[in-house]
């Protein structure tokens, strides 16, 4: 029942954000990305999950900004580089903490590819 009520409340919010696009849609995806990073980290990284959630969130948000703020430094082509850099940082965090786990690295592309893809598709002329 809780899921049904949540869906009834969130469905209109999501549909309006998709319809409006732009900053509203980006903000919705960014909030969802941070929430997904927190959930992923809590489930897979065990104790000390907060640093992993921060690394994952910052990586996904940076990749999203690379999609929506095109200029001479950023653009859709930079997202894979940002995701790879985030994976390297996550691996280093794991090594420095003495808790190397592949899940902290796998979470970054898992979250970032989906989030950046949906924003990139919405930005297309026929994205609606």
Structure report:
The chain is mostly helical. The protein is built from 5 helices and no strands. The protein is flat, with a radius of gyration of 16 Å. It starts with a helix and ends in a 5-residue tail after the last helix.
Quick structural overview:
With 128 residues, the chain is mainly alpha-helical. It contains five helices and no strands.
What keyword list fits this structure?
128 residues; mainly alpha; 0% strand; 80% helix
Question: What is this structure's SSE topology?
Answer:
Blueprint: H1 2-20, H2 22-44, H3 49-68, H4 79-97, H5 102-123
Radius of gyration, whole Å = 16 Å
Task: Please state roughly what percent of the residues sit in beta strands, choosing from under 5%, 5-15%, 15-25%, 25-35%, 35-45% or over 45%.
Answer: under 5%
What's the helical proportion of residues?
over 70%
Structural class: mainly alpha
Strand count: 0
């Amino acid at each position: 029942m809780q899921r049904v009520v949540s869906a009834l409340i969130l469905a209109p919010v999501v549909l309006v954000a998709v319809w409006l696009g732009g900053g509203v849609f980006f903000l919705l995806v960014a909030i969802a990305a941070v929430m997904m990073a927190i959930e992923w980290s809590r489930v897979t990284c065990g104790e000390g999950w907060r640093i992993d959630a921060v690394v994952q969130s910052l990586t996904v948000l940076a990749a999203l900004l690379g999609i929506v703020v095109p200029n001479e430094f950023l653009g859709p082509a930079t997202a894979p580089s940002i995701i790879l850099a985030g994976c390297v940082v996550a691996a280093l965090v794991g090594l420095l903490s003495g808790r190397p786990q592949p899940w902290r690295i796998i979470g970054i592309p898992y979250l970032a590819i989906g989030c950046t893809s949906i924003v990139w598709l919405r930005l297309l002329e026929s994205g609606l």
